[in-house]
Write a structure and sequence with these properties.
About 50% of the residues lie in helices and about 10% in strands. The protein is an alpha/beta fold and about 375 residues long. The strands form 4 sheets. Strands 3-5-2-6-9 form a 5-stranded parallel beta sheet. It has a two-stranded antiparallel sheet with strand order 1-4. A two-stranded antiparallel sheet has the order 7-8. Helix 13 packs parallel to helix 16. The chain is globular and about 130 Å long. The protein starts with a helix and ends in a 7-residue tail after the last helix. It binds 3'-phosphate-adenosine-5'-phosphate sulfate. 3'-phosphate-adenosine-5'-phosphate sulfate (PPS) binds next to helix 7, helix 14 and strand 11. 3'-phosphate-adenosine-5'-phosphate sulfate binds next to helix 7, helix 14 and strand 11. It is a single-pass type II membrane protein.
């Protein structure tokens, strides 16, 4: 009897031990399910905000804040879109990721500033004619965007291709004109053909000036860089007593405008070319710029009120140039004091240029009064 009692007590304690172990195991299992599962969710939330590893992390740094938003998962960006109104106006992150977001960003830059386009107008010459003044004056116009430097595409850089050239241009809206100036185009044999092959519709501006004054200006510039060159007279004549002019000297050759113009007229209609008087540009900048605006099909916005005559400089200056409230004159290299030339030499050169000038006036239908 006593043994039976002992055996049944053992069974009870064994069952108790089994149930206890089982409940312990269950508790452990439940604990794991609850807490381990929670840890996974926490990690998922964190991973969702992390950017995927990128090979060009350096480039991403440059993208700055934009990249912080762009690398978020679609869920994260959706909840971001439900935030304040400022954030709602941002472009949503696209499933295409980083590059798709970059192109979205470019799209909004394009919407605001337009695209880079090949120029539809060029200031092609002439060197020392007043090309910088025309460029700086016309770019005040809100419908003109101009490249500040001379790209020399159609003479020195043609091999780089049109895509290279386009990339240099400022962004323009469809309503805006893209403009650049390179004065050496006017005397570059291949330039008219090359420009016409870019577009037959390109508008061409040529700023011309008395060829004798232009030659002296050109020489003054060269002399400022190379003080050891021969005198103007020595360079200008093969034989001065015979009035034999050296037409191989660039400073002389550039001023034979009609010869260069004939090359342009093989590729462009006269109506596509506009000639600015370099002299009137100084005495009446608003009048000359009025005609430039008409030629470019622009509303006459640049008027007298944009200019004042700076007595110290001896030239008209801009009262209020683009993106500044300060009045501004052109730099020191524009409007230099010319070297003194013997008046007889000037007279000889005027004689030399006369027939070229007359033919030039007839061809363009304008008398520039250089005599
Ligand atoms: N507003 C104003 N301010 C200063 N200079 C003016 C202006 N308008 C025309 N000009 C004349 O422009 C001449 C320089 O011509 P370019 O700009 O065509 O020169 S360049 O070919 O780009 O080097 C420059 O020639 P130089 O006087 O011989 O220096 C000026 O006479």
């Amino acid at each position: 009897m006593a043994q039976r009692l002992l055996t049944s007590a053992n069974r009870v304690s064994a069952r108790f031990a089994f149930i206890f172990t089982l409940s312990l195991s269950c508790t452990y299992l439940c604990y794991n399910i609850i807490f381990y599962g929670g840890a996974v969710m926490t990690n998922q939330g964190y991973e969702g905000k992390r950017c995927p590893p990128s090979k060009n992390a350096g480039g991403k740094k440059l993208l700055g804040k934009l990249s912080d938003n762009n690398c978020a998962s679609p869920d994260v960006s959706r909840s971001a879109g439900q935030r304040g109104s400022n954030e709602q106006s941002r472009p949503p992150a696209s499933p295409g990721g980083h590059w798709a977001d970059m192109s979205l960003r470019n799209m909004s830059v394009a919407q605001k500033y337009g695209n880079k386009k090949l120029p539809n107008a060029l200031i092609v010459g002439v060197k020392k004619g007043g090309t910088r003044a025309v460029l700086e004056f016309i770019r005040i116009h809100p419908d003109v965007r101009a490249l500040g430097t001379e790209p020399h595409f159609f003479d020195r850089n043609y091999d780089r291709g049109l895509d290279w050239y386009r990339e240099l241009m400022p962004r323009t809206l469809d309503s805006q004109i893209t403009l650049e100036k390179t004065p050496s185009y006017f005397v570059t044999r291949e330039a008219p053909r090359r420009i016409a092959s870019m577009s037959h519709e390109t508008k061409l501006i040529v700023v011309v000036r008395n060829p004798v004054t232009r030659a002296i200006s050109d020489y003054t510039q060269t002399l400022s860089k190379k003080p050891d060159i021969p005198t103007f007279e020595e360079l200008a004549f093969k034989n001065r007593s015979l009035s034999l002019v050296d037409t191989s000297w660039n400073a002389i050759r550039i001023g034979m405008y009609i010869l260069h113009l004939e090359n342009w007229l093989q590729y462009f209609r006269p109506s596509q070319m506009h000639f600015v008087s370099g002299e009137r540009l100084i005495t009446d900048p608003a009048g000359e710029m009025g005609r430039v605006q008409d030629f470019l099909g622009l509303k006459r916005i640049i008027t007298d009120k944009h200019f004042y005559f700076n007595r110290t400089k001896g030239f008209p200056c801009l009262k209020k140039p683009e993106s500044s409230s300060q009045p501004r004159c052109l730099g020191k290299s524009k409007g230099r004091t010319h070297v003194q030339i013997d008046p007889e030499v000037i007279e000889q050169l005027q004689e030399f240029y006369r027939p070229f000038n007359i033919k030039f006036y007839e061809t363009v239908g304008q008398d520039f009064k250089w005599e």
